[in-house]
């Protein structure tokens, strides 16, 4: 596992509430610092928990550990380090996140934890927490997208066309097809990607952009990455199932997250129809130049929470940052991470 199992992390297997085997990776506080309690970090789809540990001198998990936090990185069912599955965000909201939080609380003997959630790790976590399934969580830092997935206008055209054309033929999209395209449809997508994306020589980077938006690139700003991180990303982005993309398409069209039909006994059809069932404080963060999900979506989610508890929650737009470079950027350790640590400390 690239970026996680480097000797400092302890890996703990546990079962989601439907029995699927998941992983947590624990980095305990640096010796001699005050214990600040557990913080759970959840990445998005098509990646692994190790995406938070790029080849940089200072990563967010390490800085949190140095600060005194007990850091836990989650490989949920979207992780590329686990067997691929035909999941929806609802599955993670109902099965994965409650089980992960309960496991952390049991191991640490703590009844409250904090969380840093990104992209679809954030959307699925938000589904869970506003539905009252995560009462142990006291503070959440959410990056890029939460309850309102707003996307660039071109995606309103691209996504439904792509879903209609591809769903009969493939069960997933995979950024690794930029390197190895097995079959006719992956080869066709590889050809189309190479025809329109000329922004770099990293085929996984370009296929990721082709899959997830309309930017050149989409998931990060090239100028924010070191050459080593850009090269490392070749092995860090892979598959996501069509079931996930279909749910996101429906949510984009609705202007907010919608649940699938799998868990209507637990989750509402939409997640803003009633007050959030949580007492957690939220810090919403996004990059000003986010080409995957527009900052207007995060502003909308902030407004929803602020309407119920005015002045308690926060919203920040990070100048010159995009989507995932908030965690991978060469200057993130000085420009972003101190702000995240500060938000975690506000109870």
From TrEMBL:
Keywords: FAD, Flavoprotein, Oxidoreductase
Cross-referenced Gene3D superfamilies: alpha/beta hydrolase
Lineage top rank: taxon: Bacteria
Oxidoreductase found in the keyword field: yes
Molecular function, one GO term: oxidoreductase activity
Family per similarity comment: Belongs to the GMC oxidoreductase family.
The name this protein goes by in its record: Esterase
Native organism: Antrihabitans stalagmiti
